[in-house]
Specification:
The protein is mainly beta and about 280 residues long. It contains two helices and 18 strands. About 10% of the residues lie in helices and about 40% in strands.
Length: about 280
């Protein structure tokens, strides 16, 4: 095969690859009356070599992590078509006061969103350092938070904790004039960290609905959550909830295959994507 033939074959291969990539169908919209529209600008399949800095921070701009675990940018990477957040048992030289023994990871969206359908495919970390997917905003008056899930992937003294999927809402008006904090604990027969799952959330003006693998697990009226919020993936230590990792627990990896976001046509017209001013 001569040089011209090789060049021609390679050119056709590249052209076919580009055409195939451009012709790939968009992810299937969630079922329902909302007429969801896929938002490619915010969604991410994590197919590159690094985190897309136009969409994400590789840290939480306003928080160092829940003590004693310290968020570190080094614990965030994109590899093999996945976003990977790592939790480790390690000491960091010159760490801020109160941070020791463990490091963890956080990724936050550069934009804030109001309403929509949110979905990730993931495998939680097999550790008592959490794996979490949540929406959040805070200002000088109030805090709004919707936790799609918080999972303790390993607990050496509680066999039920790794089977539990916490779906939570928080709404706090300062100074403590109103506080709403409630959750549903959804149980699995298999530890969540032993398999991949698809976690979904529908957030509209009227209601909030949680899904696991396409099955509805919680529904509530949307009484308070009407502000644009950031999208977050992270791992934290929870010393006052389920406790710190045992001596045998050295952390792990929270793997996310994709993040997908849909909105409603009328909401797109009303500018439901906002700058993240939480820097």
């Amino acid at each position: 095969m001569n040089t011209k033939t090789i060049f021609f074959v390679l050119s056709i291969h590249v052209l076919c690859s580009v055409v195939m990539a451009r012709s790939l169908p968009q992810p299937t919209a969630p079922k329902g009356p909302e007429r969801w529209v896929y938002n490619e600008a915010l969604s991410d399949e994590f197919e590159g070599q690094t985190l897309d800095a136009s969409k994400w921070y590789d840290h939480n701009p306003t928080w160092k992590g829940r003590q004693p675990s310290l968020f570190r940018r080094e614990n965030v990477r994109v590899e093999g078509g996945k976003l990977i957040l790592t939790g480790k048992r390690e000491e960091v030289k010159d760490a801020p006061e109160g941070y020791h023994t463990f490091t963890s990871a956080a990724v936050q969206s550069r934009k804030k969103v109001l309403y929509g359908f949110f979905e990730i495919k993931c495998k939680p970390m097999k550790s008592a350092l959490s794996s979490a997917f949540w929406l959040y905003v805070q200002d000088g008056v109030k805090q709004e938070e919707i936790d799609i899930f918080e999972i303790c992937g390993r607990h050496d003294s509680s066999p039920t904790m790794p089977l539990t999927y916490f779906a939570t809402t928080h709404y706090i008006v300062k100074p403590e004039r109103l506080k709403v904090s409630d959750h549903v604990a959804y149980a699995s027969k298999v530890p969540w960290a032993d398999r991949y799952l698809v976690a979904g959330l529908k957030w509209t003006r009227d209601e909030i609905v949680w899904y696991v693998d396409g099955k509805e697990i919680r529904r509530r009226k949307n009484d308070f959550w009407h502000s644009p919020e950031t999208i977050n993936f992270d791992s934290e230590a929870f010393p006052s909830w389920w406790g710190l990792p045992s001596d045998a627990d050295n952390g792990g990896e929270f793997e996310i295959e994709y993040f997908r976001y849909w909105s409603q046509p009328q909401n797109q017209e009303q500018m439901t994507i906002f700058e993240n001013d939480m820097k």
